[in-house]
Design brief:
Layout: H1 2-23, H2 38-51, H3 53-56, H4 74-78, H5 80-89, E1 95-97, E2 100-102, H6 113-123, H7 136-140
Antiparallel strand pairs: 1-2
Helix pairs in contact: 2-6
The protein binds heme C.
The site of heme C has 30 residues, from helix 3, helix 4, helix 5, strand 1 and helix 6.
Length: about 140
């Protein structure tokens, strides 16, 4: 009986491990925002003021039809990987944010991967956004297509 129990425990562990493995295949997803420190948020905020605020505005609301909003943005929430790509490499393809079309130019930010993590964790958690957080490996994994 003891032997059987051990075998059951063994299969139980295997199933947990394989389940965990399939989770790691997910694309860029956000993890618990509780991991961001106040200091990192402040660094993200100052990068935002220097590199993003001219277009996306202090309020994160952008300018309708020209610069899309980051505050309450369905695009940012649902296409995080693409959003990081756009900020990393620049973008001028047509996109739709909260039902409104945008097709202007966002130049590549010129930020390092570390700075991109800080600025994204700031925009994912500002103006009422509660979109989780990202890690350096996720930004590093996004390569030019
Ligand atoms: C010169 C103006 C400009 C600057 C500066 C700029 N953006 Fe953008 N951003 C845009 C435009 C225009 C788009 C839409 C691009 C398109 O249509 O392909 C966009 C799209 C986005 C999107 C995806 C759409 C959305 O609203 O969720 C994100 C996220 C974003 N920008 C974040 C940033 C961050 C972070 C910075 C600073 C590092 C930044 N942007 C700097 C103009 C700008």
């Amino acid at each position: 009986m003891k032997g059987l129990n051990l075998i059951l425990v063994f299969f139980y562990i295997i199933s947990i491990l394989s389940c965990g493995h399939s989770n790691t295949k997910k694309k860029v997803t956000t993890s618990d925002s509780a991991t961001i420190t106040a200091k990192d948020l402040e660094k993200g905020a100052s990068l935002y003021r220097a590199k993003c605020m001219n277009c996306h505005m202090k309020s994160g609301k952008g300018i309708e039809k020209f610069y899309p909003p980051l505050a309450d943005s369905d695009y940012l929430r649902e296409n995080l990987e693409e959003a990081i790509y756009m900020v990393k490499y620049g973008s001028n393809k047509p996109i739709k944010v909260n039902g409104i079309k945008y097709n202007s130019l966002m130049p590549a930010s010129g930020l390092t991967d570390e700075e991109l993590v800080l600025v994204f964790n700031y925009i994912l958690n500002s103006w009422g956004n509660d979109y989780g957080s990202i890690k350096l490996e996720q930004v590093e994994a996004i390569k030019r297509k």
